[in-house]
Amino acid sequence: MIKKRYINLLNKKIVLLTFIIILIFTSCSRNIPSKQQRIQKLQALIPNSNYITKTIHTDTYSFYTIQQQNNTCKNVHVYFEGDGLAWITRHLISDDPTPLTPTTFNLLLKDKYQCKVYIARACQYTNDNHCSKKDWTSHRFSKQIIFATNKIIDKIKNNFQNDNFIFIGYSGGAAIASLIANQRNDVTYFISIAGNLDTELWTKIKKFQPLTGSLNPVNYTNNLKSIKQYHLIGTKDSIIPYKVTQSYIKKFSNKENIKLKSVNATHNCCYEDFFKEIIQDIK
């Protein structure tokens, strides 16, 4: 009899807990713009007809890009988007990582150079059947994603017929940029904005689950020694602590090519004007 009552009580608690979880999920999701709304928000920022949106396919992933048309350039500036809406809450994974705010494209708009490309991350802004939640959580910097993104860079080079690249990465996009730059010999400059460049240290500091299926940029820097770098970090950034950038920079014994600037910004705001000054000075 006592055992039966205990089981009934336990079942009621499970039902109540399930209800609470559903309620929290519904509450968190209710105010999140739909994927289509997020796409429209980005597209509304595209300034003129000289830009085209193009989804580029690889054997594994598809990538949403915005690029200028019909330009042949010696250098191309490539902008890598951040992690986007990877999580709804600390414990609730998003169904779609498309960013709420296109921070990286806002940075691109501050760049007056004529040859530039915006690359969203794998699974952002697309309906890609290859995607699963691990692609924007534990495996967001996996070998497969880095390989596929690097293939996109090859296709961009074939299109623009350029000699070199300048890579600009925001947040997790900086990790992507660093990992790809380490595999290439045509990247002359790497700029990170609030960059996640030591993912193991980051997860430890933030007490997040380890990114078990991902590469850690801090472990892949051997081929970056001759590349000029500029790292922009926010003094009010509670997402990517200063120690993460510091750990990455410590990997380079010769720091002559590396610049670091701390500015009055949070993780999501407001780097644009600071970045404009940096990108204008790069030849």
From TrEMBL:
Keywords: Hydrolase. PROSITE patterns: PROKAR_LIPOPROTEIN. GO terms for molecular function: hydrolase activity. The keyword rRNA-binding does not apply. InterPro entries: AB_hydrolase_fold (IPR029058), FSH-like_dom (IPR005645). Residues 130-256 form the Serine hydrolase domain. This is Alpha/beta hydrolase. It comes from Arcobacter arenosus.
